[in-house]
Design goal:
The protein is 61% helix and 2% strand. It is mainly alpha-helical. The chain has a two-stranded antiparallel ribbon. Residues 19-250 form the ER-bound oxygenase mpaB/mpaB'/Rubber oxygenase catalytic domain.
């Protein structure tokens, strides 16, 4: 398989909103927000906890998710299809049990896949916009619509996936009664606030990681704060913190940030030329 086939723009390409947004450093905070949000769907988080060693391999899971997003965004069409097929194959073999009813259900139920998808897209969009990434409403709608492609890659019918902000808001309104901060959600919350680490790194965890996790948590919607039961700062304070963090992280040269493995953006630029470089101003075209 030639993952760097010259000229192959993949499923999104340099003219897409997704191409520009996913190169932003705030996507890491958005990814943690997505984990907090996804954990509030009991059937979904139960499938994760019963089929993976989340407590020992949470970082690996986060990195695998980041690698998948990077591959489908910046990789060739072949690489994206391969990544999607791998996810679908893994999910097709897994199931979970409802401890209250004894029901056994597959983890690739469309409703569960849709929740994971919508929680991710909502988190990426919310954090990017509030941290200062330039987004018009039209660009936000384009971003949501573009990700019907990503939804199809994991096995969803793209016609059943929200395609703009209004449809995404309606979806969350519909699913809200299903959400709860159950035992598994509390375990995810505990882990994200105080992940296990080497004793020598405990000071760094308190100084750096807790700030990141707290900011990701603070960026959650009001209903999520209510379910978790912790009082958040005011939305205006959270937005100021997100904007400050975004400003600081964007001071790190993009070329330096993009050198981190697995270098999806660098490889895409090598394949498609310097004009494919992600840049916030391109969203406003």
């Amino acid at each position: 398989m030639d993952a760097d086939r010259t000229g192959d723009q993949g499923f999104f390409g340099p003219d897409s909103v997704t191409w520009q947004v996913h190169g932003d450093p705030m996507m890491w905070i958005a990814g943690i927000r997505a984990l907090y949000l996804q954990a509030l769907h009991p059937r979904t988080v139960r499938g994760v906890m019963q089929n993976s060693d989340f407590r020992r391999d949470a970082w690996g899971r986060l990195m695998r998710t980041a690698n998948f997003v990077g591959t489908i965004t910046y990789g060739t069409a072949e690489a994206a299809e391969h990544a999607g097929a791998r996810i679908r194959k893994i999910h097709s073999k897994l199931s979970a049990t409802d401890p209250d009813t004894g029901e056994r259900y597959p983890v690739d139920e469309p409703g569960l896949l849709l929740w994971v998808h919508c929680a991710e897209i909502d988190s990426y969009l919310n954090v990017a916009r509030r941290s200062g990434f330039p987004f018009t409403d039209a660009a936000a709608d384009r971003y949501i619509a573009e990700h019907r492609v990503a939804a199809a890659l994991v096995g969803l019918d793209p016609d059943e996936v929200p395609g703009d902000q209004d449809e995404l808001a309606a979806y969350f309104e519909k699913v809200l009664p299903e959400l709860a901060a159950g035992t598994e959600a509390r375990e995810v919350d505990d882990f994200l606030r105080t992940p296990p680490t080497h004793p020598l790194l405990v000071p760094a965890r308190a100084l750096l990681w807790r700030r990141v996790a707290n900011l990701a948590y603070a960026a959650l919607p009001p209903y999520a704060h209510e379910l978790y039961g912790r009082q958040p700062p005011s939305p205006a304070v959270v937005t100021r913190r997100l904007r400050l963090t975004g400003t600081l992280l964007r001071c790190v040269p993009a070329r330096l940030r993009w050198q981190l493995p697995p270098k999806h953006i660098i490889r895409a630029m090598r394949r498609l030329g310097p004009g494919s470089r992600p840049a916030p101003y391109k969203v406003m075209r």
